[in-house]
Amino acid sequence: MAIHGIGMDVVDVARMKKILARDDRLFFRKKIFSPTEIKYCEQSVNSAERYSVRFAAKEACLKAIGDPSLPLNEIIVEKKKTGKPFLVFGGSIQKRVEGYHLHLTLSHTKNYACAVVVMEE
Ligand SMILES: CC(C)(COP(=O)(O)OP(=O)(O)OC[C@H]1O[C@@H](n2cnc3c(N)ncnc32)[C@H](O)[C@@H]1OP(=O)(O)O)[C@@H](O)C(=O)NCCC(=O)NCCS
Question: How many angstroms separate the alpha carbon of residue 79 from the centre of ligand 1?
């Protein structure tokens, strides 16, 4: 067991709120987030926080893997029954993470959203 990579990211919730407000045709949402993520965020009273923290998770994951060119929409945050979040990956990233275990933790306030990813081999 060894740490292959670690990544963290912080997102300004006010900035995300502005992007979401301009996204009336949902292009941004659909480009970056999965249908499950969109449903979870939209159902929340503080949806900008939820989108922000998921965006942070995707960016933190790029850092842990060490490749900023990977598509964000193929890094997906899902949740266990306990509420604990975990990452699942779309086709083009699957191979990059094969044999690794990725740990994710999230935290958000009305101002900032933060995510940390640890990639373990
Ligand atoms: C789970 C818990 C730690 C979240 O902490 P929080 O300060 O409320 O909220 P944060 O912004 O830091 O974290 C929220 C994120 O934690 C994650 N989370 C939720 N349940 C989790 C769990 N069981 N394990 C790990 N992560 C969890 C989620 O991803 C959530 O974000 P999301 O809903 O957008 O996906 C907290 O709600 C909790 O259950 N604490 C236990 C202690 C307690 O009940 N204290 C209250 C009395 S003092």
Answer: 12
Domains, the chain, in order of start with CATH, read: 3-120 (3.90.470.20)
What's the whole-model pTM score? 0.93
Residue whose C-alpha is closest to residue 65's, from 20, 96, 101 = 96
Residue 9 φ then ψ, to 5°: -155, 145
Whether pLDDT at 46 is above 90? yes
CA of 25 to the centre of ligand 1 (A): 31
Specify the pLDDT at position 1. 79
Q: How far is the CA of 119 from the CAs of 42, 53, 103, 104, in angstroms?
A: 29, 18, 6, 9
